[in-house]
């Protein structure tokens, strides 16, 4: 039981490049989330998916898109990366309240 | 939407002393309050949670208290140890909703 997994662990992009962060969970959870974490700002919600086939914007959705591919997988796409998107990205899943996080992706945009 | 405030932002204690971290929330619909511990370079991990039908919950050296009337909840760590050093986040959620709202974190340092 791997829990929540994310790929890649690290990524460096140039401004304007695109990439997709992958997330998968094997706990059969309905809800999945993408957060970004910046120093001193805690965890800010980018997008979430309450169930397969649905997605909703969180606090900071601009510059991102998401896809809930199936119940297990929830991907985050940066279409045209900007230096302001340099951050650590965490995926999470939850059921009956309890939320579990993936190991994170450290993204640097130069 | 919900607004969660967390204090203090940094906290240093001597090993063996107690540490208390406080959070307030604004939405009376929130009824689930988890606490996460995040060690440097690691993912946040759930350490304890409380639902609004309970006033206090304990798990060994950690406890959480909830005051629904005042809309605040606190994390108490007793007999602190160096391995308790980490960033701690509080959060709030309505169990009928989907979003978790996080505080900005408290960096706890336990001095040996």
Please provide a written account of the structure.
The complex is a heterodimer of chains A (110) and B (112). Helices cover 0% and strands 54% of the residues of chain A. Chain A is built from no helices and eleven strands. The model of chain A has no long low-confidence stretch (mean pLDDT 94). Chain B is mainly β. Chain B is 0% helix and 54% strand. Chain B has strands spanning 4-7, 10-14, 19-25, 32-38, 45-51, 56-59, 62-67, 72-77, 86-92, 101-102, 106-111. In chain B, strands 2, 4, 5, 9, 10 and 11 form a six-stranded mixed β-sheet that branches. In chain B, strands 1-3-8-7-6 form a five-stranded antiparallel β-sheet, with no helix packed on it. Classes of the chains: A mainly beta (110), B mainly beta (112). The A-B interface holds A 31, 33, 40-45, 48, 50, 56, 58, 90, 94, 97-104 and B 6, 9, 32, 34, 36, 42-46, 49, 51, 89, 91, 93, 95, 98-100, 102-105.
In short:
The complex is a heterodimer of chains A (110) and B (112). Chain A has 110 residues and is an all-beta fold. Chain A has no helices and eleven strands.
């Amino acid at each position: 039981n791997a829990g929540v997994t994310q790929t890649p662990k690290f990524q460096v992009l140039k401004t304007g490049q695109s990439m997709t962060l992958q997330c998968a969970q094997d706990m059969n959870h309905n809800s999945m989330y993408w957060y970004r974490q910046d120093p001193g700002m805690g965890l800010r919600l980018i997008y979430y998916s309450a169930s397969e086939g649905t997605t909703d914007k969180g606090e900071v959705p601009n510059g991102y898109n998401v896809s809930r591919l199936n119940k297990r997988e929830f991907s985050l796409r940066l279409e045209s990366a900007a230096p302001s998107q340099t951050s650590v990205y965490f995926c999470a899943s939850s059921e009956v309240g309890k939320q579990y996080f993936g190991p994170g992706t450290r993204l640097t945009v130069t | 939407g919900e607004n969660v405030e967390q204090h203090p932002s940094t906290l240093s204690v001597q090993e063996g002393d107690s540490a208390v971290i406080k959070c307030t929330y604004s939405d009376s619909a929130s009824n689930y309050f988890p606490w996460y511990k995040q060690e440097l370079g690691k993912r946040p991990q759930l350490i304890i949670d409380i639902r609004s039908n309970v006033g206090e919950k304990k798990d060994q050296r950690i406890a959480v208290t909830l005051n629904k009337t005042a809309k605040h909840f606190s994390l108490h760590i007793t007999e602190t140890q160096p391995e308790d050093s980490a960033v701690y986040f509080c959060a709030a959620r309505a169990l009928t909703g989907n979003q978790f709202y996080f505080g900005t974190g408290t960096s706890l340092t336990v001095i040996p």
